[in-house]
Amino acid sequence: MSAPELPFFVYGTLRPGEVNHDLLLRGRTLAEEPARLRDAVLYDGPGYPYAVEEPGGVVTGDLVTALPEDYGRLLTELDRLEEYRPGDPRNLYERVAREVVRGGDGRPVRAWVYVAAPGVAAELRARGKPIEGGDWRDRRSPLQGGDRREGGGSAR
């Protein structure tokens, strides 16, 4: 069974202006708009963030809608970037469908989000460094770049 064609909520290196956006998304989207993921906390990772599902938190990012003709290939490429394989217990991220809130009109939209896999999330809750305010851009300059890994949503 194939995945539904949902937009992606991205919160790290896949956001517009970031390194993986330029490599994977530039020219392959219909729309990109600010959005928020509720009930998640952002944690700092090794060059990219992790969204961890936790009640009360908010993660800032962007809702990205892929061009229909690029969707299947893009989904495969994003899964590869996030090292996500359905059902693999070694995943660092899980791709899940969640409701995000569009920044422009406050409307909820169902989207793919790459969140920390259960083992990674437990480790981050125990020993990780939360990113205050839930916006990865607030903790680093876009000019610093980062590695090719994203971390969240489809989201990285």
Structure summarized in a few sentences:
The chain is of the alpha+beta class. It has helices spanning 19-25, 71-81, 118-127; strands at residues 8-10, 29-44, 49-66, 93-102, 108-116.
Sheet with the most strands, sense and barrel status:
5 strands, mixed, barrel
SSE run: EHEEHEEH
Mean pLDDT, to the nearest integer, reads 88
Unreliable spans are 141-155
Assess the beta-strand content as a share of residues. Answer: 35-45%
Question: What is the strand tally?
Answer: 5
Distance between the termini: 25 Å
Number of helical elements = 3
Describe this structure in words.
With 156 residues, the chain is an alpha+beta fold. Helix content is 18%, strand content 36%. It contains three helices and five strands, in the order βαββαββα. A five-stranded mixed barrel has the order 1-3-2-4-5.
Q: Which properties best describe this structure?
A:
single chain, 156 residues, alpha+beta, five-stranded mixed β-barrel, 18% helix, 36% strand, disordered C terminus
Write the layout of secondary structure elements.
Elements: E1 8-10, H1 19-25, E2 29-44, E3 49-66, H2 71-81, E4 93-102, E5 108-116, H3 118-127
Parallel strand pairs: 1-5
Antiparallel strand pairs: 1-3, 2-3, 2-4, 4-5
